[in-house]
Amino acid sequence: MESTRRTFLTALGSAPMFIPQSAFGANDRISYALIAAGGRGRSVSRTFGKLGAQCAALCDVYEPHLEMAKKDSPDARTYRDFAELLDKEKSLDAVLIASPDHQHFPMLRAALAAKKDAYLEKPLSKSLEESAQMIETVRAHKQVVQIGMQRRSAPAIYKAKKLVDDGVLGRVTLVKPQWHWNIAAKLDNSPLPGQLDWNRFLGSAPKRELEPMRFRRWRYFWDYAGGNMTDQGTHLMDVVQWFMNSGAPKSAVCQGYVAKMEGAEHPDVFSAVYEYDSFMVTWTLDYSNSFQNGWSITFMGDKGTLILDDAGYKIYAEPWKKNAEPVHEEQAPVPVETHVQNFLDCIKSRQDPNCTVEIAAQAVSGPHLANLAMVNGRKMKLDPATYRAS
Description:
Layout: H1 2-14, E1 31-35, H2 39-50, E2 54-59, H3 63-72, E3 77-79, H4 82-88, E4 94-97, H5 104-113, E5 117-121, H6 128-139, E6 145-148, H7 155-165, E7 172-180, H8 198-202, H9 212-216, H10 227-231, H11 233-244, E8 251-257, E9 269-275, E10 280-286, E11 294-301, E12 304-309, E13 312-317, E14 328-331, H12 337-349, H13 357-376, E15 380-383, E16 388-389
């Protein structure tokens, strides 16, 4: 894994931009299946195709998703059951899994048993316990597994981390990740158009009658996901811990509430505070306000402040002064292409990719812990060796 990262960083030093290239030649294309063809799955699948991979099969429990995915991959065979796909599609090199969180582990486990490499969308797991199980399962196999946390393959993020490692910020005492979008609204529970295999969607989740909003907005229900806490938080907390060389948090407290997403179980406004050995983190999200729209992470040190966001990064020297110009700045959005390319390259090289299951488990550990703190109404502590909370 370290050799892979060194190669990537060396490439950054010798070229101003990472330009994606096909992992194999035109006559040796990687063949993959898209499992769960919702909006995110179709988007990442198009990136796979752009980089030279061939989608041979599609799987989804919702017929309209398959129909939309077929427009991108008209020759792909279609399935409703991922186990049937893996049983019949013996020649596949890999699978792209973009399912709801509660299906991540079952689908990844099945793919590994079928000896397929896997690109799994984040967050890694639905719980701390699953994280530990998924690490054990992946390491019992020889397949390449990349988790879809694209900041791990973003050249500008690596450059910003090097500046932090070089001491530009001095001692960092507080980090403030945040996500602001004004998108919250009452969940749509009107009838679904098209055919849905509800029982297959549920999988191992508790059985219940169909409520269309549970399918449309599955992320906001405890049966299927960890909400925005783990969805957006796994990206941002990964960067925090990566830059701080810290590992998982020691403890978390959290409060949140449903402001405008009527019908949801997960909050659309929340704040979590994390304890680390030498710094603290305040992670906040508000989906009813667009000030500083999108995501950002502010690292506050005694020599400078780093602000990372979708546009790139800026560093301001201490003492900060109003209208001060940044001492370091780069406009560089986070691309998905470089992360997918890293996975395709690792299929060929058999090296660990940029975002392993261990990295992803550590990234989502804090968000899982904060959810537990919010539900239990108290401070929760984490044993980082076992991923157990108390």
